[in-house]
Amino acid sequence: MIRALYTAASGMSAQQMNLDTIANNLANSATTGFKQLRLQFQDMVYQNMVTPGAAQSQSTVSAGLQIGLGTKSAATEVIMSQGPLNQTSNPLDVAIEGSGFFQVQRPDGTIAYTRAGQFHLNSQGTIVTTDGDPLVPSITIPPNATAVTITQYGVVNATLPGQKNPSQLGQLQLAMFPNAGGLESMGSNLLAATLSSGDPVLGNPGGTEGLGTLQQGYLENSNVDVVTEFVQMVLAQRAYESNSKVIKAADDMYSQVNNMTR
């Protein structure tokens, strides 16, 4: 019965973390470029009462007798499916349709990656994120430039005074990873490369590397399906309740044992 208490408690702890993950997904259902997280579980060590394949007289045990000791949270998987595109008509709003991440330079000089294309201009005319981190490679738009356009292949053009034809101001690059699910979430819509994600592969949008194309005047919404998250929340709650009933049943059995001496 002590074993049942700890086993059920591990299930309650795992479902609590599952609920925390679901809550984070729902909280970010309106966050631009947010990617859904999914908690993964694995069973814990087993107690072998009879080892499978053990010798027994003239034969071997075919199945054995094992008792599981519960579950634990193993990993949070990032679901990298495409989020729906939302038209904003803002020339500095850019969505990635397909694979890839924008590169931004953090204040400490490191490179971070994001799917959120809510860009702005700082006081020097450089294209930056909402937190002021510049894009990599850096692109500066002159203050007198008009009709700024970003093609699906990442070419930034603008019309300057005295010119009939647009001038090319720069080229946006994207990064992709062998295992994008291994990126580390940093907050502020930013991701960091890890040993699990592998090194970034850089290229122009729509190029031979397999990177997606850009859509100017659009933003990629979160890929969180609110209905699915509510279903998962109900399942997590029911699993939590089931484990709590196991604990109550084990406690009642203890109570019966204690009352036997009265």
Automatic annotation (TrEMBL):
SUPFAM superfamilies xrefs: Flagellar hook protein flgE (SSF117143)
Cellular component terms (Gene Ontology): bacterial-type flagellum basal body, distal rod
Major localization class: other
InterPro entries: Flag_bb_rod_N, Flagellar_basal_body_rod_CS, Flagellar_FlgE/F/G, Flg_bb/hook_C_dom, FlgE/F/G-like, FlgG_G_neg, LlgE_F_G-like_D1
This protein's record includes keyword Metal-binding: no
Annotated compartments: Bacterial flagellum basal body
UniProt GO BP: bacterial-type flagellum-dependent swarming motility
Start and end residues of each Flagellar basal-body/hook protein C-terminal domain: 215-260
Residue ranges constituting the Flagellar basal body rod protein N-terminal domain according to the UniProt record: 5-35
Keywords assigned by UniProt, alphabetized: Bacterial flagellum, Cell projection, Cilium, Flagellum
Pfam families given in the database record: Flg_bb_rod, Flg_bbr_C, LlgE_F_G_D1
Every Flagellar hook protein FlgE/F/G-like D1 domain range: 95-158
Protein family according to the UniProt entry: Belongs to the flagella basal body rod proteins family.
Complex formation: The basal body constitutes a major portion of the flagellar organelle and consists of four rings (L,P,S, and M) mounted on a central rod. The rod consists of about 26 subunits of FlgG in the distal portion, and FlgB, FlgC and FlgF are thought to build up the proximal portion of the rod with about 6 subunits each.
Protein name, entry field: Flagellar basal-body rod protein FlgG
Species the sequence originates in: Occallatibacter riparius
Gene: flgG
